[in-house]
């Protein structure tokens, strides 16, 4: 698989804000009307940031499968949020251009000319010392592709430094020790129908519970990219109030919602200068293998940051994905999913 495809691929079941999206779209089958209703509900509750991220994620995951009219409705709502509640005209203009490119709708035509991309300054011009006295190193070779400044590297010194499955704890045990139904039962029940989404089929099980300041999700289903079943759980915090809703989440290595992206990377095991470098990126994907680690990063200049760490075959006993989501410096989502060899039938026990 090419670096470009590997880096920019977005699976329909990615667990960040994607946990909510997966619950809303029933294991990848797009339901834009339902996503729009949820976006409107979140915005009415004063959580426009989560509403906007939900819309962005849906367009990333399902964009090619959506009709022009469906894409137009989603872009229209996103632009409304960024021009209104989020007061971010630059993001609104970026979405307007993207919407016009994808739909051709005249309502998205922009009167502002598109500026030519400016190459990144040399590392010595952009590298600033951290207050701790540590300077982030320069990325190895960087280049422009599709408007994104991206880079990658292969490391052998990072093998074995990342947390293992014994640290991926939900409730009183690791996710690897749960059956799908046990994890379903672990998710706290809200009680209000409008705040709960669940589904149980012979090949798919999901549950999403939304509280005033957080949501908790789980899902078990088939992953076509890996040709395996996967079991996952995660949480999103609203307004950054911290955990509640009856659930206390313990993240690996003592990570908390007060940690910024660079701090999370350092707690995960990256050297300080690497943590600062990757802490400046919008997307970071890390692939762990038995004898090396591959890191891919890109900076789109957005406030939303995503981190995915893939535990590949041969790295250890765990095969799965560890994910974090950030809005500016705020950690707002955490999730883990494990790929399993079991067949496509769910055993209720």
β content, as a range? 15-25%
Instruction: Please state the average pLDDT score.
Output: 76
Structural class: alpha+beta
> Could you estimate the helical fraction of the residues in percent?
25-40%
| Number of separate strands | 13
Give the distance, in angstroms, between the N- and C-terminal Cα atoms: 38 Å
Order of strands in the sheet with the most strands?
1-2-10-9-11-12-13-8-7-6-5
Number of helices: 10
Major beta sheet summary: 11 strands, mixed
Gyration radius over CA: 20 Å
Describe what you observe in this structure.
The protein has 349 residues and is an alpha+beta fold. It has a domain at 31-108. The chain has helices spanning 3-8, 18-25, 32-44, 48-62, 68-83, 89-103, 123-126, 180-186, 261-268, 272-278; strands at residues 143-145, 148-155, 169-170, 173-174, 196-200, 205-210, 214-223, 228-237, 283-288, 293-299, 304-311, 320-327, 330-340. The strands form two sheets. An eleven-stranded mixed beta sheet has the order 1-2-10-9-11-12-13-8-7-6-5, with helices on both faces. A two-stranded antiparallel ribbon has the order 3-4. A hairpin with a 2-residue loop joins strand 3 (169-170) and strand 4. Helix 4 packs antiparallel against helix 5 and helix 9 crosses helix 10 (272-278). It is globular. The chain starts with a helix and ends in a 9-residue tail after the last strand. Residues 1-16, 25-30, 113-131 and 141-148 have low confidence and may be disordered.
């Amino acid at each position: 698989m090419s670096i470009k495809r590997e880096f920019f691929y977005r699976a329909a079941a990615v667990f960040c804000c994607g946990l909510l999206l997966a619950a809303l779209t029933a294991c990848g089958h797009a339901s834009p009307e339902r996503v729009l209703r949820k976006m409107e509900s979140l915005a009415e509750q004063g959580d426009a940031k989560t509403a906007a991220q939900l819309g962005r994620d849906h367009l990333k995951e399902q964009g090619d499968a959506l009709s022009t009219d469906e894409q137009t409705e989603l872009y229209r709502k996103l632009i409304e949020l960024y021009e209104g509640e989020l007061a971010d005209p630059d993001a609104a203009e970026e979405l307007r251009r993207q919407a016009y490119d994808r739909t051709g709708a005249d309502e998205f035509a922009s009167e502002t000319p598109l500026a030519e991309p400016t190459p990144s300054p040399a590392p010595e011009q952009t590298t600033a010392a951290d207050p701790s006295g540590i300077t982030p190193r320069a990325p190895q070779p960087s280049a422009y592709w599709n408007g994104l400044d991206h880079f990658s590297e292969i490391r052998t010194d990072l093998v074995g430094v990342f947390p293992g499955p014994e640290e991926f704890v939900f409730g009183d045990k690791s996710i690897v020790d749960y059956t799908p139904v046990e994890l379903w039962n672990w998710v706290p029940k809200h009680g209000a129908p409008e705040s709960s989404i669940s589904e149980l089929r012979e090949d798919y099980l999901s549950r999403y519970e939304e509280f005033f300041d957080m949501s908790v999700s789980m899902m078990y289903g088939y992953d076509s990219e890996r040709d395996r079943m996967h079991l996952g759980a995660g949480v999103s915090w609203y307004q950054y109030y911290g955990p509640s809703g009856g659930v206390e989440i313990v993240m690996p290595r003592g990570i908390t919602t007060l940690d910024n992206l660079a701090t999370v990377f350092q707690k995960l095991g990256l050297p300080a200068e690497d943590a600062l470098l990757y802490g400046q990126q919008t997307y970071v994907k890390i692939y762990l293998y038995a004898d090396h680690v591959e890191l891919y990063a890109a900076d789109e200049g957005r406030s939303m940051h995503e981190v995915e760490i893939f535990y590949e075959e041969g790295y250890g006993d765990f095969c799965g994905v560890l994910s974090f989501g950030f809005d500016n410096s705020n950690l707002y989502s955490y999730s883990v999913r494990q790929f399993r060899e079991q067949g496509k039938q769910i055993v209720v026990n």
